[in-house]
TrEMBL record:
One GO cellular component term noted in the UniProt record for this chain: nucleoplasm
Gene expressing this chain: LOC109727349
Stretches that traverse the bilayer: none
Domain Thg1 C-terminal: 95-201
Similarity annotation: Belongs to the tRNA(His) guanylyltransferase family.
Keyword Nucleotide-binding set for record: yes
A GO molecular-function annotation: tRNA guanylyltransferase activity
Protein name: tRNA(His) guanylyltransferase
Gene3D superfamilies on file: 3.30.70.3000
Species this chain originates from: Ananas comosus
Length: 216
């Protein structure tokens, strides 16, 4: 017999704690994929999958609605957005690195290159079906050639945000916190949120930012 409403509800909750020493990826499905990565040492919501997923999706949905007018000032949000998601565990840092690299290529570069070609063709007078047929089975280098030859567009010079997507992470940076009596800067290592459009495919990004995959 439960002694309180809290204990009564808790009896119906499943123990879905994720295994320790695993990286946690919250994948949110929408018109594009969004990923939130928690380190293997994270104790966020006691590593309970249902709680992590519920909170992350709810927060993402709320921010999506609040930021709508900022990005689309002349368009109304016709209906409340709906996002689904799931939680996936990865046991090693190299696997999470390879996964994120693959997602950047698949959902970033490949999808955007296709969409760029598709809408260029539609704007030039092709029907959507005709554009789809033209692009069916076309290789990446051929899409680049199509953009350059027919529309004078160099895909590699498009803004990095469209080719690579956005990445937000916490990095250790050296900052000046004050000056001593002689005027020399006093610096400390602090964690800072970094937003950018980086190429995370290959070893260079990870070599330059090893702190991302290090344990806290």
């Amino acid at each position: 017999m439960a002694n309180s409403k809290f204990e009564y509800v808790k009896e119906f909750e499943t123990d879905d704690r994720l295994p320790p020493s695993n990286w946690i990826v919250v994948r949110i499905d929408g018109c594009h994929f969004h990923h939130f990565v928690l380190k293997e040492t994270s104790q966020f919501y006691q590593r309970r999958a249902s709680k992590i997923l519920s909170l992350t999706v709810s927060y993402f949905t709320a921010v999506y609605v609040m930021k709508w007018k900022e990005f689309f000032p002349h368009k109304d949000l016709k209906r409340p957005p709906f996002f689904d998601g799931r939680v996936v565990c990865y046991p090693r840092a190299k696997i999470i690195r390879d996964y994120l690299s693959w997602r950047q290529v698949d959902s970033g570069h490949i999808n955007n290159q296709y969409n760029t070609c598709f809408w260029m063709l539609v704007k030039s007078g092709k029907t959507e079906r005709e554009a789809q047929e033209m692009l069916k089975g076309m290789l990446s280098k051929d899409k680049n050639e199509l953009l350059f030859q027919q529309f004078g567009a160099n895909y590699d010079k498009l803004p990095a945000m469209f080719r690579k997507g956005s990445c937000v992470y916490r990095d250790k940076v050296e900052e000046t916190v004050k000056f001593d009596l002689t005027g020399n800067p006093v610096k400390r290592i602090r964690k800072k949120v970094v937003l950018g459009h980086f190429d995370i495919v290959g070893p260079n990004f990870w070599r330059e930012h090893p702190e991302i995959l290090e344990e806290d």
